[in-house]
Amino acid sequence: MKKTWSEEELVECWTLPEDELALLTQTSEENRLGFALLFKFFQLYARFPLNQKEIPQAVVNYVAKLLSISPKKYDYY
Are 24 and 69 in contact (CB under 8 A)? Predict the structure, then answer.
């Protein structure tokens, strides 16, 4: 997986439109963030990450900010 993402790439590849946000019905913040990251990763790579570290922190931070969730919640997913 790509390790360095520009701001434009983050917006283009990792932003969740309204219809995708509607899928985030899990109750905990950890589940919403984890699901969003796995969902977008699968869209980009047609597979799931092998481990949490495969998704760069910049991506986690970006998606967490979109969802108004602390990126540290991903550690508990």
Answer: no
Residue pointed to by tokens 């520009």: 6
pTM: 0.92
List alpha helices for the chain, DSSP H. Answer: 7-14, 18-21, 29-45, 57-67
Q: Which residue has the tokens 């969740």?
A: 16
Give pLDDT tens digits for 4-30. 999 999 999 999 999 999 999 878 999
Cβ-count burial 2-38 (b if 16+ within 10 Å, e if not):
eeebeeeebeeebebeeeeeeeeeeeebbebbbebbe
Token pair in block for residue 71:
């990126």
Length of the chain: 77
- Show the tokens assigned to 2: 């790509």
